[in-house]
C-alpha cells in the first residue's frame, strides 16, 4: 500500500489540497512522498480513503478475499 500511496501523491500537483481533505500535514506528506519518512497507520488509512485505495486489512475485516 505504501507504493500505491506514494504514486498517488506523486501525481498530485499540490499537497495543500490533500492536507485540507485529510488533515495530514503537508510536510509529512512531502517527506513520505520523497521516501524520507513513513506514515502512521491511521494517516495512511486517511490517505487511502482520500485516493480510493483499499487496504488488504480492511478487505479482510469485511470478510472478503483480496486479490494478491
Description:
- It is a single chain.
- This protein is mainly α.
- It has one domain: 434 Repressor (Amino-terminal Domain), CATH 1.10.260.
- Helix content is 62%, strand content 0%.
- The protein has helices at 2-10, 15-22, 26-33, 41-51, 56-61.
- The longest helix is centred in the last third of the chain and has 11 residues, at 41-51.
List keywords for this structure.
68 residues; mainly alpha; 434 Repressor (Amino-terminal Domain); 5 helices; globular
Could you list the spans in which at least 5 consecutive residues all have pLDDT below 50? Answer: none
Distance between the termini: 12 Å
Report the CATH topology name: 434 Repressor (Amino-terminal Domain)
What form results from the Cα inertia axes?
A: globular
What is the percentage of strand-forming residues?
under 5%
Helical content band: 55-70%
Number of strand elements: 0
Overall mean pLDDT: 87
Order of helices and strands: HHHHH
Radius of gyration: 12 Å
- In total, the number of domains comes to 1
Indicate the CATH class: Mainly Alpha
